[in-house]
Amino acid sequence: MINPFYWLAKQITEHPVRVAWIAVIIFLIALYGTTLITMQTGNDAYLDKNTPRGALLNHYIDTYGSDAIMVIIESDDVTNVDTLWYIDRLINHIQNQQSVDQTSGIVSLLKQGNGGVLPRSSAEITQLLRRSPPELIQRNLPSNMMTLSIITLTPGLSDEKQKQVLNNIQTIVKRSNPPPGVSVTLSGEQAFDEEMGREMGSSMGSLIIAAMILMIIAVLALFSHVRYALLPVAIVASGLILTFGLMGLTGTQISMVVIGAFPVLIGIGIDYAIQMHSRLDEEIYKSSLTKAVTTTITKTSPSVLIAMLATSTGFIAMIFGPIPMVGDFGITCTFGVMSCYLAALIIVPVFAMLVHYRGKRQDMRMNENSDSHLMVDGPTSSDLKQKSSLIDRYDRMLGRIAFKISKRPVPILIFVFIIAAAGFTLDNEVPISADQKTFVPSDMPALLDMNKVTRTMGSTTTVPIILSGDNALQPLIFNWIHDFGAYVVEKNSKITGVTSIATLVLDYNNQTLPRTPSEISSIIESIPEEYKNRYLNGKNEAVLEFTTIDMELSQARDLIKVIRKDMEWYPSPPGLTVRVTGSLEMFSALMDDIARSKSLMTVLGFVFIFGFLLLVYRRIYAALPLIPIIVIVGWNGAIMYLSGLDYTPLTAVLGSMTIGVASEYTILIMERCEEELSRGLTLHDAIAVSVQKIGTAITVSGLTTVFGFAALMLSEFNIVANFGITTVITVGFSLAGAILIMPAVISLAYQNRDYGEYIFQHG
């Protein structure tokens, strides 16, 4: 059977131009795919609609939900006659738009008190305001400088349709020609989601640019001892474009969590490029260019492939979590690491063949031999020797450290595992945050507008309960709906009221509950459809909606638990199914999902990688690269707790991502150790040489990865910035685990083999 790496090496060394053209064609297809990428916001990012909870929420939104757009009008005096008539014209124009169900606000209130006509004098307006119920005035006119109008949309609109309606209303507002000094702002969930999508797109571009700039600085500082030091940066850029293309072609959407994947990919992708480039530069001093390229592809590529696939299995574990956008993060990272590996595998050797790659020290020796008595511009040969000696000294230092650790593995492992055990304990104390409003920039205009609405109107979020049975209009069930609603409101101070088909019937029946099915049916038939459909779906399903005070998500989580207990203590009639739903319930459940998923994804990551390594090596020592990672995951818990960071949908992937990132480093060390052992070196010799050779490359790539992750810390999205802090620390831990812990693990596991004694030479 033909070895695919030998075949690829032959194609590249014999036909580099042909291979380059194939790569260009694939690159152009990927560029087209980038034009198909879409942004994801809304509930689908947090909850899988194919789960029972997701299906129930989607059913509630489609059947009863009527998303509202808030129109905030501000001026020196919104009760001014001209301003009120402008508001009336604006709201009437909006009311005539398709998919707008109804409108309400101060103008509607004034018309109701004046025979359906808006007053034309300030005196009339003042008189009407004085006669109106104070609670309605406070809700619609919190001050003379601001008023709110509510645009209720038709229930069941898709996200795309809601976005279209919002865009239409925005156009109407822009063309409405308000009086001087009057400003109009749109708010609500849809406006918030739209602006968040724009901010995410802008943030993603800024993060990628920042990561690339930091990457260039890191590469120039740490990788300048090789020729074409910036080649890995170009490779990562190509890998990113290929990733974007795959996302667009497969329909994977970008969310606020997926944004964090791109600097991660830049950090990991640079490692593959540096590993390939570093090995090529190492081999070029030993052999011809063709042989150096062949050795790089056939020796380094398989090891990096195993590391890349192990990293991918860590990311794939995220797909099995309950949060959709975390699954998309895992899919994006999997696409990305594969794309960056393929880019490094092809571009490094093809580029080397096309430019006839030579090492820097080869040119230095040529200059010394050909014209040593002449001065040359730029760095002198002594400067190059000095730079080279810095790398050499670092190499030897790593070898000495690895040698000493391999001689005394037990104390090292006991010490690091004690710290890890403490970290696993502290991890349970790390707070969990799932409030969407805390994820976005605190000064985002849409967030400020929503806070303004909340301060004015109180909480606009409800806790709906869906009731389903054979006949929801039976007197027994009807009475239970009324009594249960009143019971929950009376019992819970955080609930301010309840609306249901029962309260609606009371409003249309002089606050008296009907006693017979015929009475109930008669009254319901008299209620307009637009009101009735908010609480009733045929005869078999109804909904109660509890309004609440504005509160923290953790408080809402506790409230929903109390409501569920109330449902147990106040049992429903036989045959009636009662279920809590709504966005507040979704975000509350998200906190539990994060707590479960972070552990689940970590365990699955270990299981998947161990299974993969066992399949590749078919020996029990396949588990060795995972031992340092267990320690690192424990350290992560300790640093999260000590740093005061929260677990969010993004930092929930930390354990699984750590497994993916760190496994690459530990696998490369083990692979190189096996290669050195096969050459006949003793155990401690092989450990020292493998860390000396691989350690420098993973240090450079690890520190460069840190620079890539550091770009996340620049994000205006708090969820992304905090993820940046944790990932920078994680990569540092992963680097330390590979260089300091892996030698101890290999030494302890292999010491029963008879490799003889070895005395490491210090150069």
Distance between the termini: 42 Å
Helix content: 55-70%
Q: Could you tell me the number of beta strands?
A: 9
What spatial form do the alpha-carbon principal axes imply? elongated
Mean pLDDT: 80
Q: What is the radius of gyration?
A: 33 Å
Main sheet overview: 5 strands, antiparallel
β-strand amount: 5-15%
Q: Structural class, judged by helices and strands?
A: alpha+beta
Please report the number of helical segments.
29
| Unreliable residue runs | 366-388, 754-763
Description:
The chain starts with a helix and ends in a 13-residue tail after the last helix. It has helices at 4-14, 16-34, 52-63, 81-95, 106-112, 122-131, 134-140, 159-174, 189-222, 231-250, 256-259, 261-284, 289-316, 324-355, 360-371, 381-407, 409-427, 436-439, 445-457, 475-491, 501-507, 517-526, 529-532, 553-569, 583-617, 626-643, 654-678, 683-710, 718-750, and strands spanning 68-74, 100-105, 146-153, 183-187, 462-468, 495-499, 536-537, 541-548, 577-580. Helix 9 (189-222) packs across helix 28 and helix 17 packs antiparallel against helix 29. The strands form 2 sheets. Strands 5, 6, 7, 8 and 9 form a 5-stranded antiparallel beta sheet that branches. It has a 4-stranded antiparallel beta sheet with strand order 2-3-1-4, with helices on both faces. With 763 residues, the protein is an alpha+beta fold. It has 29 helices and 9 strands. The longest helix has 35 residues, at 583-617.
